[in-house]
Amino acid sequence: MIQLKVEAVALDWRGYPVVVLRENGGERAVFIWVGPTEATSISMHLEGQTVRRPMTHDLMLTALNSVSARVDCIIITDMQEETYFADLKLNLNDREIVLDCRPSDAIAIALRADAPIYIDNSLLERLEESRRETESDLPSSPLSTIIDTGETTVH
Predict the structure, then answer these.
(1) For residue 1, what are the CA distances in angstroms to 57, 93, 117, 119, 124?
(2) Structural domains of the chain, with CATH
(3) 12-22: string of b/e by CB count within 10 Å (b at 16+)?
(4) Helices and strands: H and E segment counts in the chain
(5) Pairing of strands 117-119, 69-80
(6) Is the dihedral of CA 58, 63, 67, 72 positive or negative?
(7) Which residues are paired to 135 by β-bridges?
(8) How many Cα atoms sit within 13 Å of 5 on the Cβ side?
(9) DSSP 84
(10) pTM strictly above 0.90
């Protein structure tokens, strides 16, 4: 497993929110497109903003804490047809509970619980290989100008 950190919530070239996760101490990154609500929830937590009433991810963590469940970690487990999958790993009375979870929700909860975010090394390698293949398909002529490669713009 490779530990990731949330580097930023950004907008891609079309204005869609994306969470940028980077491996701790490394260069590889994972870009997960998320909905605006989840992007707001993650961004607000990263910026230390608070609201008067609990947001959905705050409520989920409060519910887990009220039954003495601890968020151990989240693991980004797979990517199929441009959709990421994640597991939310909980500990309840020394029993491990694994919940299938959207990565955006898992990230928002992990940040609030100060729990680590992991990705399977083979998945990270597969994503990196896919990125390299995409980059090799870009024009390489010195006369060509690449206006947009689809990379993110951090705001």
Answers:
(1) 25, 24, 10, 6, 9
(2) 2-133 (3.10.690.10)
(3) eeeeebbbbbe
(4) 4, 8
(5) parallel
(6) negative
(7) none
(8) 6
(9) E
(10) no
Mapping DSSP to helix (H, G, I), strand (E, B) and coil, where does residue 139 land?
coil
Q: Residues in the chain, how many?
A: 155
Q: How far apart are the first and last CA of the chain?
A: 29
> Distance between CA 135 and CA 24 in Å, rounded?
23
What are the C-alpha distances in Å from 127 to residues 108, 121, 149? Answer: 22, 10, 16
Summarize pLDDT for 27-82 with one digit per residue, the tens. 888 999 999 999 999 999 999 888 898 888 888 998 998 899 999 999 999 999 88
Is residue 79 within 8 Å of residue 127, measured between CB atoms? yes
Query: Residue 149, class by beta-carbon neighbours within 10 Å (0-12 exposed, 13-18 middle, 19+ buried)?
Result: exposed
User: With 0-12 CB in 10 A as exposed, 13-18 as middle and 19+ as buried, what is 33?
Assistant: middle
Give DSSP secondary structure letters for 90-102: EEETTEEEEEEE-
Q: Which two tokens stand for residue 47?
A: 């910026």
Please give the structure tokens belonging to residue 45.
């937590």
> With contact defined as beta carbons under 8 Å apart, do 24 and 3 qualify?
yes
